[in-house]
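Supplementary Methods, section 5.1.

A reviewer requested that the exact input to the structure prediction be made available. We therefore reproduce it here, unchanged from the version used in the analyses.
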Amino acid sequence: MVVKEKRGRRRYVAFRLDPGLRRDDLRKVLRSGSVIQCSEGWAVVRCAPSETHLISDEVRSADPGAESMATSGTLKTLRTRYPELERTRPPKRRR
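The structure derived from this sequence is encoded cell-by-cell as follows.
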C-alpha cells in the first residue's frame, strides 16, 4: 500500500511574514494546517491540497502583510527555491 493512500497528499506553502510574528501566534490562527517552520520572516505551513487557499486566508488574518510565495508537494523543493528556508530550518529530530 502506498503511504499517500493512507495519510493523503500534502502541500507545503511558503510565506513571507512580518519578522516579529512568532510560531505560536501562527499556530493559534491555523485551524486546518500545521506550522513546519517559522523564523526570520519566513514560514512553511503543511496542509491538504484542497486547503491551500484557506491556509493563505488564515495566515493573512494573523499578518495582513503576509505573502504566499509558493506551494509545493515537498519541503525540499521549497528550500531549494528559497535558500532562506534552508538556512533557517529547524534542526533535524532524532528518532
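The helical segments are 3-7, 23-29, 52-62, 75-81, 83-87. These observations are discussed further in the main text.
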